[in-house]
Amino acid sequence: MSRTHANRGKIWERQLDRYHALLQSSGRALVTRNHPEVVVKRDRSGKVVGASHRATGAPDYTILSGGRTIMADAKSTRQSRWALRLLEPHQANTLDAVERQGGLALLLINTPDGSYAVLWSLVRPWWMNWHAGEAGRGDASLTAEQMQMFSVCWTRKGVMLDYLQSALDRMEVRG
Fold it and tell me: Measuring CA to CA, how many Å separate 118 from each of 37, 52, 161?
């Protein structure tokens, strides 16, 4: 991952962290930031010589509100399309597990044009098709129109993505 990609993702996650802090301070939700596990590297004498993130971390956020659970993973891209390859198989498996337990799974996607709270349940068939190597031309990514269609809510660039109530409403309809 390039340095600019890592920084772009961090900017998006900081924006989400501010939104989640507002949710917590107002008492609307409890939000847990799931940081990736760090693996410490030691030399033969036991001295710490480095550290790295384990690749199989949980999705970025666990949100509890009104007894309901939402798990969300933050994704960022410089393109107007979001490439399905940006979701790792272990993340897809965790999002599936959340939905099997009655929770809601979201991808919080930031693009140059706007931000989207995309329902994993609607993206999953596209991702599974791509992951199986069966995606046709143009099916390895989602367009802005598809992200909007698959979202509980979306915003134009520069507007905070206030997705909690829309997500909770979606859970009411579902269940």
Answer: 25, 29, 11
For residues 115 and 161, is the Cβ–Cβ distance under 8 A?
yes
pLDDT tens-digit series, residues 129-170: 999 999 888 889 999 999 999 999 999 988 999 999 999 998
Q: Which domain holds residue 117?
A: 3-174
CATH code of 44's domain: 3.40.1350.10
Residue 11 CB neighbours (<10 A) = 11
pTM of the model: 0.85
Start-to-end Cα distance in the chain: 39
Distance CA 148, CA 109 (A): 10
Domain count, the chain: 1
Residues 21, 13: Cα–Cα separation, whole Å: 12
